[in-house]
Amino acid sequence: MRARAFSALAFALVTALLVASCGGGDDSGAAPTSANGMPVIELRAPDGALRVEVARTVDERALGLSNRDRLDDGAGMLFDLGETRRATFVMRDMRFALDMVWIDAGRRVAGVTANAQPAPPGSMGPPYGSPGEVRYVLEVTAGVAGELGIAEGAELDFTLP
């Protein structure tokens, strides 16, 4: 009897671990998450789509893409500022150049800062500011915005979790 109870418990534990590691068993409809625990969503642009991490908290926005060597192809980070306002970003602790896409509350591109360069080590680098009030900022590897037809006036389609 004791061996049977132990076997049942072991089977239950192994099953739970397999379900958790495979991502199964969650019918909540929650967005997948990145290694940093940020939600990952699809963002559709005029000429393609990206899978983007969504930085929503102050800490997530402060960390951003710092200390990464690169972004995977088809990836980016969307910063939800939580409100419509003028925004300023710096490239502290960045290791590669970015396109910064400034997006208004209606999900229309207000402007693009192309090929923003990483700051020198130990420096904040120059500030990059939005062309007006924005709600979101999309960061992608330099050149990707142009490849996807992301330019001032373009409409982007995404649903936040």
In short:
It contains 3 helices and 9 strands. The chain has helices at residues 2-22, 58-63, 144-147, and strands spanning 40-45, 48-55, 75-85, 88-89, 98-103, 109-116, 128-129, 134-141, 157-158.
Q: Which residues sit in consecutive blocks of at least 5 with pLDDT less than 50?
A: 1-27
Rg, Å, rounded? 20 Å
Number of structural units classed as domains: 1
Count, helices: 3
Shape: globular
Q: Helix and strand succession? A: HEEHEEEEEEHE
- At the fourth level of CATH, the homologous superfamily is Protein of unknown function DUF192
With strands numbered from the N-terminus, the spatial order across the biggest sheet is 6-5-8-3-2-1-9
Binned, the helix content reads 10-25%
What is the first-to-last residue Cα distance? 47 Å
CATH level 1 name: Mainly Beta
| Biggest sheet overview | 7 strands, mixed
Strand content: 25-35%
CATH architecture: Sandwich
In the CATH hierarchy, the third-tier topology is known as Jelly Rolls
Q: How many E strands?
A: 9
Helix/sheet category: alpha+beta
